[in-house]
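Thread title: Can someone regenerate the structure for this chain?

I was given the following input by a collaborator and told the matching structure tokens would be attached. They weren't. Posting the sequence so someone can regenerate them.
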Amino acid sequence: MLAARLVDGARLWRLALATVAALLLLAAAAGLGLGAPMAPAMAWALALLGAGCAALAACIGPDRVLAAPRRPVPARAAPARTWRQRLAAQAGHAPFWLAGALAVESFRLAHVVATGDARPSGMLGLLLACLVALPAATLRTWMPRTSGTLWALSALAYAGLAAKSGLPAWTVAALLCLGAALHAVLRRPPARGTP
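Best answer:
Regenerated them for you:
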């Protein structure tokens, strides 16, 4: 019975936002109670975020959430896909895998492997992976030229890291980013109506 009431979209969103607001206020109170160094500033920030969540929860009504379809949509049999179509569908995830691999390798170089002058290059590589490569992967579908530009920028930055630190991992990263840039710019857009 309770689960059936929570399935309603508006109630579920209101409950989630109210819970987030309460947890944010609890975290603010805990920081103040423990006497953390930045507790007052953090408490204000968390309280403002909690108030925003509570305000959103109060504004959500039944007309603000998409209603469930009234009649079930008949299932259509999916056409058989060739191995090339399946491979092409999986290749759509490759930029995200590349951004994740760059982040993991950068973290490994910054905290595990590199010492001395090469260690800051790992930190810069991690920033590049999160702030340039990941947005490039995200924008690939909607803005391929912007994505290609971001991938080229990250390739140039990783090449600079390779020249500065002398680590071969950055050379490989620069080449992979250059390949992603070329793929983003040169790929054909999918035909309309195809997923």
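The mean pLDDT is 82.
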